[in-house]
Amino acid sequence: MTRHFLKDTDLSPAEQAQVLDLAVELKAAPYSRTPLAGPQTAAVIFDKTSTRTRVSFAAGIAALGGQPLIINPGEAQLGHKESIADTAQVMSRMVSAIVWRTYAQAGLEEMAQNSSVPVINSLSDDYHPCQILADLLTIREHRGDVAGQTMTYYGDGANNMANSYVLGGVNAGMHVRIAAPADYQPAAEILAEANELAVTTGGSVTVTDDPVAAAQGADVLVTDTWVSMGQDATGRDDEGSPFVKYQVSQELMNLGNDPIFLHCLPAYRGKEVTAEVIDGPASVVFDEAENRLHAQKALMTFLLEKR
Prior knowledge:
Elements: H1 13-28, E1 41-46, H2 52-63, E2 67-71, H3 84-91, E3 97-101, H4 105-113, E4 119-123, H5 129-143, E5 150-154, H6 160-171, E6 175-179, H7 188-201, E7 204-208, H8 211-215, E8 220-223, H9 250-253, E9 260-263, H10 275-278, H11 285-305
Parallel strand pairs: 1-2, 1-3, 3-4, 5-6, 5-8, 6-7, 8-9
């Protein structure tokens, strides 16, 4: 059966660890696996602008022996003149994988339901699971085994990044803390799924509106922009923003367990994080960005070899 990766928990805890192990292998030996040799073609569809996703998937597909086919907004009939279901059936007869950076999670689900090749969520309004794989790889490199470590996320606790940190982190056996204003905390169904998963993995999720308490003893501090792509910035990005007190500062970093700092980028210094932190010695954001390449190569290899 064709495997897809639409949200973090589409990989079991054991499979997630397997993908991370493979990412380590591929980082050390970049051309050791070529599941797309031929070259086979992988379609990479963009409904949203991108830097890291575009470069990492294009480079990764090529390194796996394949040919990336980049489809930009307005360059295909998808969702306009042709249904997602029809597009999926046509494309999966021509390519070996479909990577889609889009808006609605439901669109990805419809694509996967009608595709005979792996469909990968490279970002949706609900989840960003490829980023979490890269983050877990980065934590592993800098802090050792991820299981049992505490990761605190600051900012909009109801956005796609927070959802994936909760699910992906607990899937890895981490203790995930979400520090967010009361009106911007994870949905009940996300927390319920994470709590059910935690019984198996030993991880946990805690939600709080207290940024100081959330930093105490944390191994990783992470944040994201206050305005996600496509959101209205009104009231989110000014001096009256509810997220101002959740800015990651050196004072918060000092409360942790010698933590590292993560950010999926692009970052806005002086907003969600101070320049002192993101440009400081605890910041590993560029290792994290590079690891998008290695983690996604491992994910694609895993999915393609499951066909």
